[in-house]
Amino acid sequence: HSVVRNALFCLETAAGEKENHVYTKALMAYAFALAGKEDKRKALLDSLEKEAVKKDGTVHWQRPGKEPEVDLPYYRYRAPSAEVEMTAYVLLAYLTTQPAPSQEELSFASLIAKWISGQQNPNGGFSSTQ
């Protein structure tokens, strides 16, 4: 369809921008994964990996300029919903590939899933419906 082709062209143009927000990169990586554009997906995931927060055997992404987490006794920090959402989009981009994710991608994806599962509230949900 011409609408999908034009939308992909728009995304490819935007992906070439020097200053893309991490949230935008996460969404584009997933969109390119769904479209089967492996080269674009891989390039965005490589860029995102450089911006990842790797801590305590987990991987996630946060907004630039965000205040660092406060380590308090008996308090478990939960990330804002936008950060859970963009990290989930990166996870989807890692897992949505043809023919199948490599062992390296699956290993990295498991670190992302570990962080996301740690953001669940006591009822099994998250901080918002995002």
Automatic annotation (TrEMBL):
GO CC aspect terms: extracellular space
Biological source species: Balaeniceps rex
Signal peptide segment: none
InterPro entries: A2M/Complement_sys, Alpha-macroglobulin_TED, Terpenoid_cyclase/PrenylTrfase
Name under which the protein is recorded: PZP protein
Pfam families: TED_complement (PF07678)
Span of domain Alpha-macroglobulin-like TED: 2-130
